[in-house]
Amino acid sequence: MRRPTALLLGGLAALAALPLVVTQTYLLHMVILILFYIALTAAWNILTFSGKVSLGHCAFFGLGAYTSTILLVKWGVIPWIGLLAGIGVSLLGALTMTVPLLRLRGPMFSLATIAYGEVLRRVAILWRDLTAGSEGLTIPFTPGVLNMCFTSKTVYYYMFLVLAIGAVGISYWLYHSATGFHLRATASDEEAAQALGIDTNRVQVVALMWSAGITGALGVFYAQYVYMIDPDLVFSGTLFAIQPALNGIIGGLGTVWGPVLGAALMTPLGEFLRSYLGHVRQGLNFFIYGVTLIVVVMVLPGGIISAFAALRARLGGGARRSSGEEAA
Amino acid sequence: MALLSVDRLTKAFGGLVAVSEVSFEIGQGEILGLIGPNGAGKTTIFNLLSGLLPPTRGAILLEGQDITGIPTFRRSRMGIGRTFQIVRPFDGMSVLENVMAPILARERHPGVARRQALEALERVGLTAEADLDPKELTLARRKRLELARALATRPKLLLLDEVLAGLNPVEVQEALPLIPRLRDEGVTIFIIEHIMAALMSVSDRVLVMDQGALIAAGTPAEVTANPRVIEAYLGEEATSA
User: Fold this and answer.
1) pLDDT tens-digit series, residues B160-196
2) Phi-psi region for residue B162, left (φ > 0), alpha (ψ -120 to 50) or beta?
3) Is A84 a member of any domain?
4) Which of B122, B149, B123, B119 is nearest to B134 (CA)?
5) What is the pLDDT of residues A178-236, one digit of tens each?
6) Which of B91, B108, B150 lies at the smallest CB-CB distance from A178?
7) Cβ contact (<8 Å) for A192 and B90?
8) Which residue in the set A176, A185, A254 is minimally distant from B101, CB to CB?
9) The complex's ipTM?
């Protein structure tokens, strides 16, 4: 067996057995949060394969969460069907609102996406008949698989584990597929890509759809995990747009594993700082978090993953160079 | 029928007319050269042909079909390939992956694309460098990568924008024979080149542009004897040399 495969299988086995070891509710919640952010960041990152950095993914997240929750609370539609509807509405939202923005370049695109998430938050506050406004909606506690509602946190753990594996798996598959090649080519040089027969507009839309669809699905699962949603929560730019972007930038934008690494490191760091330092001095936790971000971005502009790549190049590169000398 | 016909093609950037009423044809299997002083509009012609710029007026016909309004990527799939004057390899992709990217536009299977990309690299003599980062290549090698990538689109017409620029004389002599060889394989070639001797030696016919207009066309011998050309282009070279 190849070493990466063995590593992957070992890791998966360890993850599957984790709830046997982590029995404290708080710690398990933390692990669930990490898995959630790995999935969210991986989904968000799919669009950045094309070089576009979105800061408005909370829009798709909130659309997913509200769609399934409204269907459940108002009409008693089970969340599994709500999940399909939530994905559909997120895709529709991406198609109508974000696709037209794709023609914007660089920071212009990022700025425009911020507006989209914010507009939806306002709509959710004002459209009281449908969303109950700022009061939010509460999901009735009726445990059962059909209701996607569980008494044990362990079940949620496995649910988010599957989601994280699914999101990262899709990200990995897309990255190495023809679409992934075309996305990376588009990110690097749009004109050169077009001159080589690559439909750069189409692949960007494809990436956006995957990214928005998975983000919408995560909104549905998240709502079922927290039971209560309101506009400031599920359309929160900080939690569901900026955070995945930060995780991605810290880990390594546009790579498959960088965002996974970023989410796995930054989620516990943020939680730890908040619970241990949040009450010492107001804002101290954010200060330290911010300093960490600045330091990582300055030292490793390509993200933490670039340090691994550099290390591997140094180890592997030495061997290659010596064999090159023999050939010469 | 000509492979490509260009009819009164004009491109203005505001008040500046970069290409003015240019008409010409390229025959199947021809090697057509394009020369002219800096700013004559040569690269603009290429950008118009590949669709990266929309023309202000005029028409472009590929095998009799009007392609003037067709987007760049579709023109590439219809058989117009090009290289860029400044090489533009894709970041974060190996030499091989750079060549796989265009192949994957018609062939969805990465394994098949990989095989075809290796063949394209072999055609330009880059097999040994397949797994390197393009940044590690010399300029001459990167120009070959640019060529391999364009060839990977299986062009009927290949637009070569100064593929020899920046190479030393030895590298030019190594690269030059690739061009007639490509023609022998059935690729029609339209080439911009600053190195006169090189261009004249490979071209069947040469177009000369000056200040956006086509001022002469003919065999290399005819063109070099044309007084207008000598004045506009060769004269400048002769006096500076």
Assistant:
1) 999 888 888 888 888 888 899 999 999 999 999 888 8
2) left
3) yes
4) B149
5) 999 999 999 999 999 999 999 999 999 999 999 999 999 999 999 999 999 999 999 99
6) B108
7) yes
8) A185
9) 0.90
A209 domain-assigned:
yes
Contact state of A195 with B105 under an 8 Å Cβ cutoff = no
Residues 82-101 of B with CB under 8 A from A: 82, 84, 88, 90-93, 97, 100-101
Q: Do B50 and A198 touch (CB under 8 A)?
A: no
Q: Could you tell me the pTM of the whole model?
A: 0.89
Residue A129 domain-assigned (yes or no): yes
Q: Is B73 on the interface with A (CB under 8 A)?
A: yes
Residue A308 near chain B (CB below 8 Å): no
More confident residue, A24 or A125: A125
Q: Is residue A139 part of a domain?
A: yes
**Is there a contact between A192 and B50 if contact means CB atoms under 8 Å apart?**
no
pLDDT at A7: 87
Please give the residue range of the domain that contains residue A181: 25-250
pLDDT at site A316: 64
Pick the CATH number of B4-195+212-240 from 3.40.50.2300, 3.30.420.240, 3.40.50.300, 3.30.200.20: 3.40.50.300
Total domains in the fold of chain A: 1
Q: CA B98 from chain center: how many Å?
A: 18
What angle do the packed helices A25-48 and A243-251 form, to 10 degrees?
80
Determine which of A143-147, A172-176, A313-317 has the lowest per-residue pLDDT on average: A313-317
**A181 — contact with chain B (CB < 8 Å)?**
yes
Give the closest-approach CA distance of A188 to chain B in angstroms: 5
Please determine, for residue B107, whether its predicted confidence score (pLDDT) is greater than 50. Answer: yes
The distance of Cα A314 from the centroid of its chain, to the nearest Å, equals 31
Q: Is the pLDDT of residue A325 over 60?
A: no
How far A303 CA sits from the closest chain B CA (Å)?
14
Convert A52-84 to b/e letters by CB count within 10 Å (16 or more is b): bbbbbbbbbbbbbbbbbbbbbeeeeebbeebbe
